[in-house]
Amino acid sequence: MKAFGLLVLFVGAAVAKSTRGNAAYTYTYSETGLGGFYQLFTDYAPDLLNFNFDNAIKSVYQTGMWLYYENVQYNQQSGKVYWVHGIEISVDFPQDNWNMCSSLKFVGSPDYMNVDTWTVYEGPIFTGSEYYGEADAGTLGSITDQGSSIILTGTSPWTFYDGTNWTGASMCVYPNTDQDVGSAGQVLNFGIYPNVSERPRYNRQQHRLGTKGVLVRERGQCRTTQGRVQRQERSLGSPGTLGTCNRMDVW
Q1: Which domains does the chain have, with CATH numbers?
Q2: Residue 24 contacts by C-beta under 8 Å, 6 or more apart in sequence?
Q3: Over the stretch 143-157, which tens digit does the pLDDT of each residue have?
Q4: What three-state secondary structure class fits 88?
Q5: CB hemisphere CA count around 56 (13 angstroms)
Q6: Residue 66: what are its φ and ψ, rounded to 5°?
Q7: For 180, phi and psi rounded to 5 degrees?
């Protein structure tokens, strides 16, 4: 079982085969020990009042990584964030997080476990709007120049740039801070970075990172290749829009 607050730990990443189905769900309960009333979520929920479950969660049974926010719309206003990740796990929230949740969402792919994905969040600690991808992107849409935190899933690192179209200073980020293993051998790997401005750069430049571009990984090395890719933006729980963009070979 894994339940985490704001601490980031660095451990080795493991390679695992993606698993189809049940990649992200959470049963939320009104009492500890999975007691009381419950509500199932399999998608983003920007306002739990719409589910008659606002400020009602004390425990969860879930698979995947889920973020639980004190305020609606994923803390567009400042508030607490509590997150849990694991595979078919039961977690009682700490008492100071009882009945605090007003919005929630999952991390990574909704269809496959341990797919290589990245999500950049507008605010620190995974708050506000977000930009999600499974391949490279020359900009981060509406949150370009506003990214403050990152979560990776899967087994491959990604290179992030502080300029659009893969320009400027860069850093390589790995999905190796946390790992979960299920009873049937399923594996989830995460790179959980609540504040990228505090993350040291791998190119030894010490300036603050303003995340703008995201560059695809290649076989575990942070470098680029040429081709066409897809990107998807998720903002405040919307299903997102899908498009294509070209990327340059800058490595």
Answers
A1: 22-107 (2.60.20.10), 114-247 (2.60.20.10)
A2: 42, 63, 64, 65, 66, 106, 107, 108, 109, 110
A3: 888 889 999 999 999
A4: strand
A5: 18
A6: -125, 140
A7: -125, 145
Question: Rg of the chain over CA atoms, in angstroms?
Answer: 17
Whether 227 and 215 have beta carbons less than 8 Å apart is answered as no
Query: pLDDT-derived band of residue 61, with 50, 70 and 90 as boundaries?
Result: very high
Q: Which two tokens stand for residue 204?
A: 């030894």
Residue 131 pLDDT > 90, yes or no? yes
Tokens of 164: 């659009």
Question: Which residue carries 């860069």 as its tokens?
Answer: 170
**Dihedral angle over CA of 48, 50, 52, 56, nearest 10:** 10
Question: Sign of the C-alpha dihedral, residues 207, 210, 211, 215?
Answer: negative
Phi-psi region of 56 (alpha: psi -120 to 50; beta: other; left: phi over 0): alpha
pLDDT bin (cut points 50, 70, 90) of residue 21 is: low
